[in-house]
Task: inverse folding
């Protein structure tokens, strides 16, 4: 890692210069944050698990024709990804009321929504990632109307696929966050692709029978059991053996 030039460091990942032009190395950290970085901690081994889970999901999405920035996993903590121009919008797809929508609209957590709802948030930590409308996005030039149409279409396709994928292993997909980027080819042609990651860090996942939380909400709410939750998601996806990994120290939240 020390021999590579660091491009960017976020809350959960570090991006380094890739081995060839147009690529980056995405390194998954063990850092855990919540409430816009107000709560911080470390979950030992989280980066390893999220790297594997995100790889699995990105590959499955690629198989159904969803374009992503993912190229391949390099090792336990790193992925090779295509360099993209990130659209400064976080897309949240909600299937069941939880988190901020419950607080904003007074809907009891766990209430199924009439249909899947897509919300947009402006990526700006200093402002607390405020919720914005399509009007804001297009007026301020964060994305064009055609780009936003493509983002909406891809988000709903991803949601449909992931709902089925998780339900098949006894998990309800409550909501999740997506990020997208502009990928340019050698002819300067651009297309919108899925970027960042998909893991228990940015998905709300509940056990379909017990409704037990299996995601970062366990850290946010001080519930404990992050190790069991993250590893159980990986186990059900078939990434980890039944007995658990031998080369990963299970995640433990440390304040």
Result:
């Amino acid at each position: 890692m020390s021999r590579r030039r660091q491009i960017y460091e976020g809350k959960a990942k570090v991006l380094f210069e890739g081995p060839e032009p147009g690529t980056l190395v995405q390194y998954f950290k063990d850092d855990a944050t919540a409430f816009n970085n107000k709560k911080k901690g470390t979950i030992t081994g989280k980066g390893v698990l999220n790297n594997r889970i995100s790889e699995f999901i990105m590959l499955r999405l690629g198989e159904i024709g969803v374009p992503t920035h993912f190229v391949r996993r390099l090792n336990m903590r790193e992925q090779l990804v295509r360099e993209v121009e990130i659209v400064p919008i976080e897309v949240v797809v909600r299937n069941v009321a939880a988190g901020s929508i419950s607080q904003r609209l007074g809907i009891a957590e766990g209430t199924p929504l009439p249909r899947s709802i897509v919300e947009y948030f402006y990526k700006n930590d200093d402002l607390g990632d405020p919720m914005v409308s399509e009007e804001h996005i297009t007026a301020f030039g964060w994305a064009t109307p055609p780009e936003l149409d493509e983002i909406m279409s891809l988000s709903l396709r991803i949601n449909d696929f992931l709902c089925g994928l998780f339900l098949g292993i006894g998990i309800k997909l409550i909501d999740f966050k997506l990020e997208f980027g502009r990928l340019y080819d050698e002819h300067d042609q651009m297309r919108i692709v899925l970027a960042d990651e998909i893991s228990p860090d940015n998905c709300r996942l509940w056990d379909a029978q017990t409704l037990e939380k299996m995601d970062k909400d366990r850290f946010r709410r001080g519930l404990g059991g992050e190790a069991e939750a993250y590893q159980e998601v990986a186990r059900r996806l078939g990434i980890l053996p039944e007995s658990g990994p031998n080369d990963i120290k299970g995640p433990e939240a440390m304040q």
Q: What stands out?
A: The first strand starts at residue 6 and ends at 9. Helices lie at 46-63, 100-105, 134-139, 145-167, 217-220, 226-236. The radius of gyration is 18 Å.
